[in-house]
Amino acid sequence: MAKVSAPPPKRLRIAFLGARGVVGTYSGIETYYEEVGSRLVQRGHEVTAYCRTYFTPPMDEYRGVRVRRLPCLQGKHIETMSHSLLGTLDLLFRRFDIVQYHAIGSAPLAWIPRLFGKKTVVSVRGLDWQRGKWGLLARSYLQAGEWASARCPSATCVVSGVLQDHYEKTHGRRPFMIQNAVVPPVRVPVERLHEHGLGSGDFLLFAGRLSPEKGVHTLLEALQPLSEAGITQGKKLVIAGGTSFTDSYIQQLQELAGPDVIFLGRVDRDFMHELLSHCYAYILPSVMEGLSIGLLEALSYGLCIVTTAIPENLEVVGDVALTFPAGDVEALRAQLERVLKDSDLAESHRVMAAERAANWPDWDGVAELTESLYLQTLGLSEPAVDDPTARAESA
């Protein structure tokens, strides 16, 4: 990981905008708000997180991060933009040095604070227009958002080498790259699992929002014949995740699911720690990602991982996971059968996952590099994060 200087030469006033908020486990952006925001505060900066009123409980701050709750128009196509627009108008009248927009849906707004003397950064965690839930109009807008993310802010930052290469090839500009982090596992005993008739090692786990690009339908189709043939040996499939304006897709999943599938809905962090501590294997059949925080968590817990061989996932797991082509039901079924029949194989992949996690940046490192990016953008330091002309050094 690249080294940066400390302490910083200036106490920065930073705004985060684009996520739903704090006190939630909805996606990687909310995780970033909490983990990086709190660490920037510890490093002496002032961080304000713009949060959506319905998502974040009333509070003045959370983990040292100032909470600014604003309303939004709720709906798949308008929520992010309506909240980001209101937040942008609000922050124009407040003293911020850096405004960080999260995800490409908010990127077209990043030029506005610059007119008022504020530097802006757009963080890109995935090409959202590739998500299956979007129609033609929304997809076109998000493609325009990608274009804007390369041109409207003072700096653009991506979470993976795959995205960095994409921006260079597509937009002729090589953005900064700061990867998502692993965190030390929080191992807890079996407690709430008992409420669902489960014990340690009794289940396979999918964790994430339930939208078509996550490929849960592929997983259900692959697993059903194995369950009917008794190959699962009584192991259940636990699906932990909520809607992302995808209720019809969730209904489709419930219709596909057999009796050995348990839908938990969105779960809190404590229960997620329990699920990760005791699952037999972690399955991520997604067809698109940025740099999956779910996969990084699975690495940190030393889990046996079965996932798609898309470049974004391979960047995380390397050769420590069992992989298969995206959308290939038969190939996924074969990998599941292997791992269910061979506990020694599963254990060997757990060991390899833990070893890979040990060499990956943590959230302290991500916060340090993010601070360095801010200082570079403000012209307060020499380049220490990945220079746009050369890939960032990674673990």
Shape: globular
N-to-C CA distance: 5 Å
Q: Count the beta strands.
A: 14
CATH superfamily of the largest domain, please? Answer: Glycogen Phosphorylase B
Please name the defining characteristics of this protein.
alpha/beta; 13 helices; eight-stranded mixed beta sheet; globular; disordered N terminus; Rossmann fold; disordered C terminus; 38% helix; 2 domains; 395 residues
Word description of this protein:
The chain is built from 13 helices and 14 strands. The longest helix is centred in the C-terminal third of the chain and has 16 residues, at 343-358. It has an 8-stranded mixed sheet with strand order 3-4-2-1-5-6-7-8, sandwiched between helices. Mean pLDDT is 88; it is low at 1-5 and 387-395. It is α/β, with parallel strands linked by helices and 395 residues long. The protein has 2 domains: 13-181 and 361-377, Rossmann fold, CATH 3.40.50.2000; 192-358, Glycogen Phosphorylase B (Rossmann fold), CATH 3.40.50. The protein is globular, with a radius of gyration of 21 Å. It starts with 12 loop residues before the first strand and ends in an 18-residue tail after the last helix. The protein has helices spanning 28-42, 79-91, 112-115, 136-149, 161-171, 216-228, 247-256, 269-278, 293-300, 311-317, 329-341, 343-358, 363-377, and strands at residues 13-17, 46-52, 61-62, 65-70, 98-102, 119-124, 155-158, 176-177, 203-207, 236-240, 261-265, 281-284, 305-308, 322-324.
Which SSEs are present, and which pair or pack?
Elements: E1 13-17, H1 28-42, E2 46-52, E3 61-62, E4 65-70, H2 79-91, E5 98-102, H3 112-115, E6 119-124, H4 136-149, E7 155-158, H5 161-171, E8 176-177, E9 203-207, H6 216-228, E10 236-240, H7 247-256, E11 261-265, H8 269-278, E12 281-284, H9 293-300, E13 305-308, H10 311-317, E14 322-324, H11 329-341, H12 343-358, H13 363-377
